[in-house]
Amino acid sequence: MNKRILIIDDEQDIREATQLCLEILGEWEVLSASSGKEGLVTAAAEQPDAILLDVMMPEMDGLTTFERLQDNPLTQNIPVILLTAKTQPAERRRFTQLHVAGVITKPYDPFTLADEITQALTS
């Protein structure tokens, strides 16, 4: 049985490209959500093995979405990997303090993304 991952990102192109990379190169079953609100519902209903979460989204940003995932007993144990273009040292420290499974910087290399996710989930 394939591992299941939920991509929460407001940009359709990123969701589609990431889904293709993970299905082909990582053999993941990919679920997707276009907003934090939709992602919270999908995560609770589908119980994926991991979540890829965009940090910068309108309405509910990724950090608020992460906090809500952590507050819900149904989703608090799902590992979350942040996808972000924010790479300043202060931001990186903040992400580390959140106890996320990992942080992947955009733009990412589609050919190494599946390996980066695996590494984040096993370290």
Automatic annotation (TrEMBL):
Residues 4-121 form the Response regulatory domain. The keyword ATP-binding does not apply. The modification 4-aspartylphosphate is found at D54. GO terms for biological process: phosphorelay signal transduction system. The keyword Phosphoprotein applies. Pfam families: Response_reg. Keywords: Phosphoprotein. This is Two-component system response regulator. It comes from Mastigocoleus testarum BC008.
